[in-house]
Amino acid sequence: MIRTLIVEDVALVRAGLRRLLAEHPDVEVVGEAATVADALAQAAATRPTLAFLDVELPDGTGLALAEALAHPRPAFVFLTAFPDFALPAFGVEAIDYLLKPATAEDVARALDRMRRAQGAHSAKPSKPRHLEIRDGGRTMFVPLDAIERVDAAGHYLCVHALGQVHLLRTPITELVERLGPDFVRVHRSTLIRLDRIAAITDRRNGDGDISLTDGSTVPLSRTFRAELARRLAAAAR
C-alpha cells in the first residue's frame, strides 16, 4: 500500500488530486495539509511513503519541506505551475514533478515510478557467491562455483574446492542453506553440487553411491534419496 500525504494549500486542487488517487486501489491517502507546519506534523503522525508537495506554500516551499522531513523520508512528487522547476525537484530526489493541473495520466505515471521504486527497495539482496573460511589469522574466500563437495570429519566439515580441502566448523544444516540451491545433501555427512553428479549406483537397501565428475565417490543415503530425485527432476525441466 502506498501511504500518501497531500500537501497543497488550495482546497480545490487537493480534492482533485484525492479523486485521481482514489482510482488506484493500492493508494491510501493518510493525510492532507495546507502548510509546511501542518505537513511536518502530519508526516510525523502518519509516516507516509509518498508525499505530493506543492512548491509554493503559505509558510515556505515544498523543497524546504522535503529537506525538513525526518528520516526515513517519503518519496516526493512535486506539484508546480512552473515547467522549469524540474531540476531543483530532482535535486531532492523527487520521483516526479507534475504541472498543474495534474491529469489522471500524470498521477498514474508518478505512481508507476513509486511502485517501481518500492519493488527495487524490497528486492532481496543477492547471496554472496563465495564461502568465507577462517584459518587461524587468515580468511579465505572460496568461490561457490569452485566447491565440488563437502563431507564431515569429526567436528569439522571438509570443503573440497580446486583440488584443496578447507576445514570449516559449522553445522552441515547451516552450510547447506549458505551454499544455496546448487547444492544438495545426499548423506547426513555429505553435500554435493547437483551438476557434478556423473552416475548413481543403487544398493539393495535403498542406499547408493554417487560418482562425481572429479572421479570421487560419495555415499547416498536412502533418507535423502527422495529429495535428490526431486532436485534432479527440477533441474531437468
Automatic annotation (TrEMBL):
HTH LytTR-type domain location: 131-234
Keyword match NAD: no
Ranges where the Response regulatory domain occurs: 3-115
Entries under SMART domains matching the protein: LytTR, REC
InterPro entries: CheY-like_superfamily, LytR-like, LytTR_DNA-bd_dom, Sig_transdc_resp-reg_receiver
One Pfam family hit: LytTR
PROSITE patterns: HTH_LYTTR, RESPONSE_REGULATORY
Coiled-coil region: none
UniProt entry tagged with the keyword DNA-binding: yes
Residues carrying 4-aspartylphosphate: D54
Entry keyword set: DNA-binding, Phosphoprotein
A GO MF term: DNA binding
Name the record gives this protein: LytTR family DNA-binding domain-containing protein
Source organism of this protein record: Sphingomonas insulae
